[in-house]
Amino acid sequence: MTPRSPQASPERGEDSAVSLMAVALLLSVMVDDSSARIVAELREWIATAQAGAKLPSTRELVARHGVSPVTVQKALRTLASQGAVESRPGVGTFVRSVRVAQPSDYGWQTAALGSRKNNRPTLSAAMRPAPNDVIALHSGYPCRELLPERLVRSAFTRAARSDAVVGRPPTAGVPELQAWFAAELGTAAPGDVVIFPGSQSGLSAIFRALVGAGRPLLMESPTYWGAIVAAAQVGVQTVPVPSGPDGPDPDQLAGAFARTGARAFYAQPNYANPTGVQWSSRLAGEVLDVVRRNGAFLIEDDWARDLGITTEPEPVAARDEDGHVVHLRSLTKTVSPSVRIAGVIARGPARERILADTQSEAVYVSGMLQAVALDVVTQPAWRRYLRDLRRQLTARRDLLADAVREHVPGAHLEIPAGGLNLWVRLPDTTDLAALVRDCETAGVVVAPGDEWFPAEPTGRFLRLNYAGPNPGTFPEAARLIGEALSRRA
């Protein structure tokens, strides 16, 4: 509102800047409110208009609503993004005709594509979107409130003003980000690092470069479903190695190497997905000895490096001097799902083969995303965020574990020292598929454990994510799971 009496002009300085900012924000809110009003009124008109009808011109809408042309254009862009109108430059804006979906015959594709190369699902239950009105315990990612949103937004703002917006980064990655990954491990050089657009791309490249189609790859069982899918897509022959509450048995691992002639073993020594198991220092040394004796590679997936709760992660790659360990670390879980950045550390010819595969597949990783990732992890607030994340994960893990123990009859679980999930074993007589359906009907979405096994599952399991939204609903979720299980008993 215009003041009734003139006010003294503010002096230049911080108060003046704050005042200008406040005015700018107020104008922005006014534009948003006005454009929303125009959108609402035009949608009412469009609902009764014929397809192809021309909307009033910008000049007419400005006069009718008493707003600026910018506000009108914003409203029209909103309608266009919603598919309600289409703009024809130099002619005007028109009501878009609605395309009625017709049933299509895709039968010809059956003959063209032939048999499926593998029967692995391309999308895990952990990746399914869930409605807002259910309790979601199936996701493989932490919820939004556990992410460093302010750091990420600020990093994107700074990166947008840098040369990363238009520059082409080196194929192996931005040197500063390579140096950060190397320093985090402590025993690697920046030149050992290759940057990937997420760990899934890294796994596919490693499997192609170091194993190859038709050749055996030893793999912990159970293990990360994405690694199983990546191996199947590459055509690798997976050989499961049982992994118990403490990790794999070195003697069984040695036997699998001798029996198959494999030259690589994929594993997650720290907070394995889905079990949460962390190898002891002794076991890590014994596994590395087995790998060395067989002239093989240990593909170490360090996905949960920043998700320790009661222990600190100890990468096996930190004790490797001869290039036997290929180390993969992702930032997606702790920076943002939108910042898909991972680093692979490999030495010698193995690194060159992985880099060559990267060049043929992706050429290079977005310099913008690399700049954002580097900005976030080098801020002083990054370490504070990780400490706070540990506290939150501890509380959520304990809340869900206590609820499962109280409400789910016959359930057995080990409390993980880190990661995002509880691995819950159910009675062997459980009809797992029916239980999952019953839970979803009751309002809680869970992930069945079968897809984390590279071969037949050895029991009936659920993987429950304690890093999901609304932890206050965990007791209710456990109660619903328990009731569904009791009905199926």
UniProtKB/TrEMBL annotation:
Q: Does the keyword GTP-binding apply?
A: no
Membrane-spanning residues: none
InterPro entries reported in the protein's UniProt record: Aminotransferase_I/II_large, HTH_trans_reg/aminotransferase, PyrdxlP-dep_Trfase, PyrdxlP-dep_Trfase_major, PyrdxlP-dep_Trfase_small, Tscrpt_reg_HTH_GntR, WH-like_DNA-bd_sf, WH_DNA-bd_sf
Entry keyword set = DNA-binding, Pyridoxal phosphate, Transcription, Transcription regulation
Tell me the PROSITE patterns matching this sequence: HTH_GNTR (PS50949)
> Which family does this protein fall into?
In the C-terminal section; belongs to the class-I pyridoxal-phosphate-dependent aminotransferase family.
Name of the protein this chain belongs to: GntR family transcriptional regulator
Source organism of the structure: Saccharopolyspora dendranthemae
